[in-house]
Structure prediction request, 824 residues.
Amino acid sequence: MIAVVQRVYESFGFVPLETPTIENLTTLLGKYGPEGDQLLYRLLHRREKLQRALEASADERGLADEGLRYDLTVPLARVVANYKDLPTFYKRYQIQPVWRADRPARGRFREFYQCDVDVMGTQSLVAEAEVCGAVATVLRELGFADFRIHVNHRELLRAFVAGAGIDLANESLALIALDKLDKVGRDGVLEELGQKGIEPAAGERLLDNLAAAREPGAFERLEGAESLRELFAIAANGPAADHLVFDPTLARGLSYYTGPIFEITCEGLAGSLGGGGRYDDLIGMFGKQKVPAVGFSLGLERVLLVMEERSMFPDLGVGPEVLLCRMKEVAAGDAVRIATALRERGVRVEVFADAPQLKKQLQYANGLGCPYAAVLGENELRAGTIALKNLTSGEQVVVTVDGAVERIRSRA
Amino acid sequence: MIAVVQRVYESFGFVPLETPTIENLTTLLGKYGPEGDQLLYRLLHRREKLQRALEASADERGLADEGLRYDLTVPLARVVANYKDLPTFYKRYQIQPVWRADRPARGRFREFYQCDVDVMGTQSLVAEAEVCGAVATVLRELGFADFRIHVNHRELLRAFVAGAGIDLANESLALIALDKLDKVGRDGVLEELGQKGIEPAAGERLLDNLAAAREPGAFERLEGAESLRELFAIAANGPAADHLVFDPTLARGLSYYTGPIFEITCEGLAGSLGGGGRYDDLIGMFGKQKVPAVGFSLGLERVLLVMEERSMFPDLGVGPEVLLCRMKEVAAGDAVRIATALRERGVRVEVFADAPQLKKQLQYANGLGCPYAAVLGENELRAGTIALKNLTSGEQVVVTVDGAVERIRSRA
Prediction:
């Protein structure tokens, strides 16, 4: 999957970046909302610094000032703010793990890989269309046909919140509640809105208005949705075309989004395969200059989970093709020499390290699921040949190294 | 480099493994020696657990029970001890970062990648020969010719320590001092040995005897070096042949080695490109069963550092091949459509997101180091063509999408 992601992201002109696992907590805190701050892993001070903190009876804040990367977007924003020699329209991709001290569940791990693409420096909706096109191409190349890219806009959501009579001071509380609609349902969202002090009637109005905007034909007439309609028109020319759906209830949990937001779903998976959106204010938090940006992130383990359940994996081409066995009268060095010759010709070879009874060696080859075993005896050694056994058919032939390579390549 | 390492390690029959970043401190502590324990990153407890620790005025041990992976060998040993369904002769490779809270220096980072191969389950020296062959093949394929794989044996070292009259209770202290010979020289090692309470005359004898064992012809006659001589004889048939050198002063810092040990050096780099050795007792520390094992680790950043200094990198084939520009009368969707067609044919394309003056767009393409720019105007759009400009030669031609692909492929 990583090889496909790399190739596709590069075909869209994105260039690779890796950032450090460890970031300053000042960089991470306050970017993901209060729930995110809670889920950060913090690195305990060491040596003198720890000693001083313990003597001062420090609390959590005094015991650590570094933490583990929580996503790839905030580190990217820090990098873009700090490095002035990046291209004006920096398009980077990044495939690295992130860490969240959350409760693990199916497809939800404390350490997981994100595969991100981001475009910096432009407010053009072409950037949104391109990041949607890139992740859609990845999923299509992996064999997915039925995924949907849900699209909404933070400003549109704000208009719905205001329109329902909710004070905009409570906007982010309302979005955090709305973000759980898939998980807890309408009643669950209404309950959380109530707990946060939002008037029940206003909560009902918000959900009703959002549901109405989801009706067929509503998107085309919806006021304030002009830029989303333009995005759909641009993306209609690319690989995301058949996958984009307007979803007025999509909220996204992270607090840094400012414009269009995205989330990918597919049948049989609660939660999403990935998500993203525009965050025009984040980079400005790390430097003087405000730089508009938009990105999309695929969750590697989520995608793999669905691929595994649907048996979508091709032959991965790992594991030895031949187990090289030898009779005990053959020197280990001769086995290494023959293995080297096979490997130089592109064959994946495991050398059986010891030389017990041949039967034992062949049993091991069968257990490994290796397609061939090669046996080296004194006669073969003298004649410059090996006995090659196809472990599926049971057929055995005596061939030269080149002959063996040919048979292995054609799986004969 | 990672792609080369993967291909070569797989050609030796190794299969991939990834392990979690976070390990229990009980797994990590006591495996790397006292200096290693000091360099572990520890993760601060969270929520109630932290609260309880603070109320109990806990120290470093009470504030954390998890840490970051310090190498790839100890996590592998834990995995092999815990998972009973692995092959008897498990050959795995692993390419992942590790973390050490050390003072950074040239080629020495707090986060760095290791590229490990390990063979489990056999005491045969074929395993040593194979891991040496695998790393030698990687370095040769990357273009290295002048590297040396220094080889020694922990039991041979023990015999030297005892033979110099040093109490074997001080063996590991003596090896930690000896490990710094390259860095601090003979006098520095003698000083550290003295500080650790080893009699000066014994320290002198140890270094004299080791130096004598390094003289030409000494290895062939050296008592206790039988198995190393056998290893050299086996490896002589493989890719490590011309690179192995016996080095009786090689000690290795890590405490878990029990047999042959390795370290790779090359001209112009203080320190090593990688190292390894046999560790027959480590897996037994995590389970009931003792499993012999041997491995080798390449340091990715060290290798890259030397490759960069020697200008050994080929064209990496990343970054867009074409910047797709458009006149402002052309719709963004048309640019996305043409870009999609080029990408489907294997070309790496960046779409200029906005449509400022063409001059600005071409300036940007030149700044990116992009070999081509493609310009989309109303005329081209109507005719189903694009204007393709070679930014090196300045030549511009009007061609179809397929024509453009052909020219880009041949760099015409």
Chain A has two domains: 2-21+69-309, 322-409. Residues 322-409 of chain A form a domain with the Rossmann fold fold (CATH 3.40.50.800). Chain A has a mean pLDDT of 96.
